[in-house]
Write a structure and sequence with these properties.
alpha+beta, Arc Repressor Mutant, subunit A, 2 domains, 8 helices
């Protein structure tokens, strides 16, 4: 393509009623078509609301099941853990960043201002009920050179952060009972 061709309009937008050229488009231009219903949508919704804030998926169907299967204290503790779920691997960390420090029970107790024994008891109950999992070094984290000891993860069928799930986490929780509870609930509604 010559410079003259590149600087010449490739397309023209013409008004149907007057025949007047409304706009011209050149090589490399991008066209964004906005229709009336799109304008209405933009006028009625705040787009990209809180786009710089991190969030966690808590599945609608999981919340009533958590309420039904956990005591109020267990439910509260499980929800408090959601702040610490890291992307893709569901490991309980200081922040959602998958490079942040992995938390132990003592860390969790301090961060949520509760006694260590209480946090230990809650973690044991949540583990027993399949809400969280406990993993020893190497059983969930491949290729980690640093020794972590015990690592806790949350059940991605209850809550999750991100869109891609680490396969060993999926495989660990697939038989936790939560997948069955959630799909059984779906089948009842059909």
């Amino acid at each position: 393509m010559t410079l003259e061709q590149y600087n010449s309009p490739q397309f023209s937008l013409v008004d149907n009623t007057t025949g007047e050229i409304i706009n011209q488009f050149y090589q490399g231009d991008k066209l964004n078509i906005t229709r009336k219903n799109q304008d209405e949508y933009v006028n009625n919704y705040i787009l990209n609301f809180n786009q710089n804030e991190t969030f966690i998926k808590v599945y609608d169907k999981a919340v009533p099941l958590l309420e039904k299967n956990l005591s109020a204290a267990e439910f509260k503790f499980a929800i408090c853990l959601s702040n610490h779920v890291s992307y893709r691997d569901c490991i309980i960390r200081e922040t959602s960043n998958s490079n942040s420090r992995i938390l132990n029970i003592k860390d969790i107790a301090e961060m949520h201002e509760c006694k260590y024994d209480y946090a230990r008891k809650m973690m044991a109950i949540l583990k027993q009920k399949g809400v969280i999992g406990k993993h020893e070094t190497g059983s969930i984290l491949p290729n980690y050179k640093e020794r972590y000891g015990t690592v806790y993860t949350v059940n991605p069928f209850i809550y999750f952060r991100g869109a891609a799930l680490f396969t060993p986490i999926h495989n660990f929780y697939i038989n936790s009972g939560w997948y069955e509870l959630l799909t059984k609930d779906n089948e009842k509604k059909k």
